[in-house]
Design goal:
- The protein is of the alpha/beta class and about 160 residues long.
- It is about 30% helix and about 30% strand.
- The chain has four helices and seven strands, in the order E-E-H-E-H-E-H-E-H-E-E.
């Protein structure tokens, strides 16, 4: 199992506080079975909120997943890293779901890994992929990128 990547990003939460962000990638396709599978995976966490950026693909998937989980969707106004920074900085601790379109997800992850914006295409994202990030103090630990094990067919 690969080791989580740690990157310094900003200092938002207090010492000892951590916020897990399950960043779900939306590609604007209609795949209800995958969406049910990602909702089932997310139900294994204690989710304190479902958020989305204001793009069509993200709004659509967030609405479907939140509905399956019985939670409301809140929109993050700025579909950039700044919007997520403000969101995470306003929370105390816990786990949230953020649904973003593929390009925004790639930009978020590239920023935390120090990858230049003109190279974000190297960060692959599948529809309903889950990227797990833990914000702790002034660090971000990237636990998984493009995790699709919850939507892979069983053998």
């Amino acid at each position: 199992m690969p080791k989580p990547t740690t990157a310094t990003f900003w200092s938002a939460s207090g010492q000892g506080m951590s916020i897990k962000v399950l960043l779900v990638s939306a590609l604007g396709v209609n795949e209800p079975e995958k969406e049910k599978m990602v909702a089932s995976l997310l139900e294994t966490y204690t989710i304190s909120g479902v958020y989305t950026v204001a793009t069509e693909a993200a709004l659509t998937l967030a609405g479907r997943v939140a509905s399956l989980m019985g939670l409301p969707v809140q929109t993050v106004g700025d579909p950039t890293c700044l919007g997520l920074t403000e969101l995470v900085g306003s929370l105390q601790c816990g786990t949230i779901v953020l649904v973003a379109d593929e390009k925004t997800t790639q930009i978020f992850i590239a920023n935390w890994l120090g990858i230049p914006k003109d190279s974000v295409h190297i960060i692959r994202q599948e529809h309903c992929a889950v990227n797990s990030l833990v914000f702790h103090g002034n660090r971000v630990v990237i636990e998984t990128v493009n995790d699709v094990c919850h939507i892979q067919p069983s053998n």
